[in-house]
Write a structure and sequence with these properties.
- This protein has 252 residues and is mainly α.
- The protein has one domain.
- It is built from 13 helices and two strands; from the N terminus they run ααααααββααααααα.
- α1 runs antiparallel to α12, α2 crosses α10 and α4 packs antiparallel against α5.
- The longest helix has 29 residues.
Length: 252
């Protein structure tokens, strides 16, 4: 399933990035993909401080004390909300079968799965095929552009940043909670729960980051490698792989 693929790619990318950090000293040379490194490092440090004192403790408590079935239900709920965007982006990428599956998953899980709390569709062999507009732009030939670290939002690229409005527009909660001011507190609460759910899933990567000589570089390389793998569905062209090796030689 593509969910498993995504998690595997993140782990592989992070492991690869950590390996490179073990042999390449911090600031050993400017990365051509990171022209704003000074700003990005400052923002990264701010985000890490916020994570250490606010987000990580909350996510750890969530993972430790919230029953696993409840956590699964929350994850399923947010995954289901992403299905309209998955459907649109799969269609835009020419993946018509995956787009139809995303539509079917949303219909089934929103009804039989009780608002997406239960992933009934997966038991019907309808596999989850997540896509976002940043990946769509990538398949259309748009390059990632400069690496950017945004306050609170974390790592991104110019391409992925440009995709945020489209991804936001395909989120059903945009029209359910943000159309009336009295619903804003519900939207904020739902957004906070999504952040906690996402952070809880990344707790396993904390130990790996702690072993990195330069956590900033580890996060950057893991993010960039993972995004390119997602654009190519785990099968980047040989030319792209050769370019990555050339970039590593450049840093050495």
């Amino acid at each position: 399933m593509k969910t498993t693929l995504k998690r595997s790619l993140i782990a592989i990318a992070l492991s690869s990035a950590l390996a490179s950090c073990a042999v390449v000293p911090p600031n050993s040379g400017e990365n051509p993909n990171d022209p704003w490194e000074t700003f990005n490092r400052q923002t990264h440090a701010f985000n890490m401080t916020m994570d250490e004192y606010v987000l990580h403790p909350i996510a750890q408590s969530y993972a430790d004390y919230v029953p696993t079935p409840v956590q699964d239900g929350v994850s399923n709920f947010f995954s289901n909300l992403g299905e309209p965007g998955n459907m649109l982006n799969n269609f835009l990428q020419g993946k018509f079968k995956e787009g139809a599956v995303s539509f079917a998953r949303f219909l089934i899980n929103s009804t039989v799965g009780i608002a997406g709390l239960f992933d009934v569709a997966s038991h019907m062999n309808l596999e989850y095929a997540p896509e976002d507009f940043g990946e769509t732009l990538g398949t259309w030939g748009v390059g990632p552009g400069p690496y950017i670290v945004w306050p609170f939002l974390g790592p991104s690229t110019a391409r992925d940043t440009a995709s945020i409005p489209v991804d936001w527009a395909t989120d059903p909660t945009t029209y359910i909670f943000w159309d009336r001011s009295e619903r804003y507190p519900y939207a904020v609460g739902l957004g906070a729960l999504k952040v906690i759910d996402t952070r809880a899933k990344l707790l396993a990567t904390d130990a790996m980051l702690q072993t990195a000589l330069d956590p900033y570089v580890a996060v950057r390389e893991a993010y960039l490698q993972n995004r390119e793998n997602l654009v190519w569905d785990g099968n980047p062209p040989l030319v792209l792989i050769e370019d990555e090796f050339e970039d590593e030689d450049y840093e050495d």
